[in-house]
Amino acid sequence: MSLLELRAVQAGYGPIQILHGVSLHVDAGEVVAVIGPNGAGKSTTFKAVMGFITFLGGEVVFDGQSLVGLPPDRILARGLAYVPQGRVVFTQMTVRENLEMGAYLERDPAKVREAMEYVFTLFPRLGERRRQLAGSMSGGEQQMLAMGRGLMMRPKMMMLDEPSLGLSPRLVDEVFDKIAELARGGLTTMLVEQNAAWALEISDRAYVLELGRNRYEGAGRDLLADPDVRRMYLGGGDGAPSWRPPS
Fold first, then answer.
1. Which of 1-10, 128-137, 152-161, 192-201 is predicted with the least confidence, judged by mean pLDDT?
2. Would residue 219 count as lying in a domain?
3. What CATH number is attached to the domain comprising 211?
4. Strands 2-13 and 54-62
5. Per-residue pLDDT at 35
């Protein structure tokens, strides 16, 4: 059964329509990638799910309930976390304070402490630097902090928007290793990613969007091997990413 389902979603920014009937689904425990060229509507799809932009039609269902018309905080409270692109952290706050911001809906201090220890277990470097200002951390560490903040409400599903954006290849490997680790732990994940080959390698299934519409869908490895997908979205190469899931 699908944990998240989009049915013919139409959405945009004010009067400007970007999505023209996008449909996709994510089953519990899956990693699903959304790829496509610039302007395809990938990040817009995530923003439509979270209620950040103008919803023009269709349906968004999460865990059996419609999200249409709900404010972002109520969507988060239902168990859907969103990590926006750009490593958005509070630079003048410590790692601990950033994580506490991710649990702002939780009123039980014991549950906040439990969630923070869970994040520190997943990201030991954050635990080591819990008193460090986020603005003094590396790009990869800030991305891990953003992911950790998204996990503070112990979500059923996490949406990651361009997690490798602006990172060096070494740091990209670190971030993708963590995404793979979370997936092995059973966290349902949907990601938008500029590094399409990496995204297809890590994903169970994937969708290719173009001009706000569905273009292709299938198993990640199948799309990675598809000559048309390689030619149009992977730079015409053999589609083989340098990243491999850790053994």
1. 192-201
2. yes
3. 3.40.50.300
4. antiparallel
5. 96
pLDDT digits (tens, 9 = 90+) for 38-47: 999 999 999 9
Give yes or no: residues 52 and 163 share one domain.
yes
| Per-residue model confidence as pLDDT tens digits over 159-188 | 999 998 888 888 888 888 888 899 889 999
In which residue are the tokens 């273009």 written?
A: 215
Hey, which residues does 16 pair with through a beta bridge?
A: 13
Q: What's the domain range around 101? A: 86-155
Q: Other C-beta atoms within 10 Å of 240: how many?
A: 12
State the Cα–Cα distance between residues 128 and 123, nearest whole angstrom: 9
Within a domain: residue 228?
A: no
Q: How many domains does the chain have?
A: 2
The Cα 231–Cα 211 span in angstroms is 17
